[in-house]
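Researcher: Structure prediction, please.
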Amino acid sequence: MKKISKFILLPAFGLFATVCANAQNWVEIADDATPVICISETVNEAPDVVEIFQNTQSPYHHDPRAPRFILVDQKGKWGLGIGGYLQTKIEYDFDRAVNNVDFLPSAIQRGGAPSSQFRRDMTNSVIFLKLVGTSRLLGDFEVYTSANWRGSGLGLQLQNAYMSTKYLKIGYTVGSFMDLAAIPVTIDYGGPCGMTFYRATQVMLRYGFDFGLSMGISLEAPDVNATENETFTIDAQRVPNIPVYVQYNLFNNPLNHIRLGAIMRDISYVDKITNKDNDKVGWGAQASMLATMGGLQLSGQFTIGEGIGSLVNNISNVGVDVVPDPTTPGKAMMLTSETWYAGVQYTFSKRFFATATFSQTVLRSRKGFAEANPGGYRKGQYLAADFFYNATENMQFGIEYLHGWRVDFNEKTYNANRINLSVRYDF
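Model: Predicted structure follows.
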């Protein structure tokens, strides 16, 4: 599901270029937020479509901005945009390396780990196609596909493929048990270790009131990351994840909001001792906030739950959705996880801004799990400090310092450091 063929995307982009070449009229619309070039036979209608592109762009820093190039239909009611960004990143680890292109405390190398490491990365670069329109019944309508180069062998990897209306979203995209707008800005694609971040195929219903209150509920295809052994194994899942959320925007401004969320998970597994299907019910609760006061912005999130490891940034690769029960062979159990982050951002001017983030993830042992797995991951902490310079409306330079801590159940502690340099161009 996560991988798409370049033989599908490239002809689409070729078709886009062909249509552009044969379009009869074009107009450049200058806008402080997103300058675009529209190609249309009815150029006077183009600004309405441009506004929809801007209103539906993601608040997440690692998602691309509204497209610069847009095709508009003859009636000026629908627009097809192509866009993305190219990002080049240089990473240097010192005083112990992290075995991942993302700075995950759980991936800090132990034992005879190298003391330093240098690498370059361009796989975060994104390209997308987006169709928008409007109707009296559906409101603003959006069809969106995007991919980066994080697939196998630097191939394309699907990030989004969905259609969305005012009340409904269907397809593959980020989950609802998270708060995209409150995620701190970092060069590191992984971001704070204590934030929830995942993607899923889903059906989401949502509704917003005029006074700033919105709510939603989803059915999401489950993705289980577990530690199996010779007595139990993960089988096909039979129940979708069910997240819900309520968000209130102060003064109807999404840059000042409080959001509460919850999720229910039913994880199926096979007891090899009895050869029977079993399940464990997991849950999660979450609170997040975003506050903006002039050039100062504060963000934070706290999450607690059982069986939600694959939804949390730093432990999605540790296998803790369900783990073996040390007291009963063939049975699985869930560990409690507590995660949080706090971030601050200050914008000095249109060109300069800086961010700082601290985050933590903790796993709680039960039934002797820590004694049975003394070298297992127990706690991680993440510190990030970033400085960004917007050289132009489309080009951004950044520098970042990262420090991570990993603590295992046997209380052994490991640290790592990384410097990131980034150049990003949005188109």
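Model: The two ends are 26 Å apart (CA to CA).
Researcher: Thanks, that helps.
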